[in-house]
Amino acid sequence: MIRHRHAVRALLGASFACCATALWAEGLVVSNWDGYMAPDAIDSFNAATGNEAELVLHATNEEIMGKLIASKGKGYDVVFVSSPFAEVLHNLGLAEDLDHAKLPNIANLYPQATELAHDKGNAFSVPYAWGTTGLCYRSDLLAEAPDSWMDMLAPSEDVAGKTTMLATDRWLLGAGFLAKGYSVNETDAGKLAEVRDLLIDAKKTLLAYDDTTFYAKLVSGEAELVHAWDGWCNYGIAENAEIKYVIPKEGSDLWVDTMVILKGAEHKDAAYAFVNFMLDPKNHGWAAENILYKVPNKPAMETLSAEFLASFPNMDMSPDALLAFEQLRDVGEAQRAYARTVSEIKAAN
């Protein structure tokens, strides 16, 4: 568990000494979230290929997208972004049309990873990690195991004040959409208003909105039921085996994080080499073992031990089971309505 704890600390904000800004880089520039690949991945890639790649960190999808749109993709070669944002890059003409002949390790992907709704056939993005969003809870503190989004949105009296929700627009609204039986990509104004009202009512029972420390609140007992990405729930499970994860009966979204090569990349051959390097089972398997997210790489997942999978049951979810859920997509102009609705929810008393 030592490596796991290092990974969690990295995800919560520690910076790698090797990191630079894109404007200063002379070689391949890769932008990723902190801690989302092995600490020595860049150095290992450089040693193996003779490249001079540098890592630039971004905290959120929105942060890197703002930079990419402002620069028209200049200054970056490979970016890690969630699938709706990869879709936006493609629609803006900023994503490279991938030549699979330059990515022989793409054959390591599960067949299901080529069927993702945002990019069937992996024409402009390569999936790096995927998973679900659900409820993470203390099985020893709750009288009954939760099985519905409403267990969090309208909790019983003994649980009220001990719940947290994700604050990020897509996932905050997603819980409401799923609870109402709507698409996680719903754009109808009337349905969006229904979800807004539901989430304003739910806010009155929350301990907090929390995207980063919710699992620690479970470990301490401050919270008993939280809205969680499956991998982050695993961080809590690693600390306390009484913490469990469940996908509510109304379902989940399918989230996918991807690697995108920019069409304007100045080091395109190196960019292909880097993506191919990350698809090597050893390199891709690091993410599964240390970040505790499922990866869509069949040989990488097959390296996980039975003991590991027993400790983190959601890691053993099949690709077919994942694809049964609706993927988050680019909602276009409706994103403004999403942002406005979330602002109204957070401003409400």
Automatic annotation (TrEMBL):
GO biological process, one term: polyamine transport
Molecular function as annotated in GO: polyamine binding
Calcium listed as a keyword: no
Subcellular locations according to the entry: Periplasm
Domain of life, source organism: Bacteria
GO CC, one annotated term: periplasmic space
Keyword Transmembrane helix carried by entry: no
UniProt xrefs under CDD domains: PBP2_PotD_PotF_like (cd13590)
InterPro entries, alphabetized: SBP (IPR006059), Sperm_putr-bd (IPR001188)
Keyword set, alphabetical order: Periplasm, Signal, Transport
Entries under Pfam families matching the protein: SBP_bac_8
Residues in the signal sequence: 1-25
Listed name of the protein: Spermidine/putrescine ABC transporter substrate-binding protein
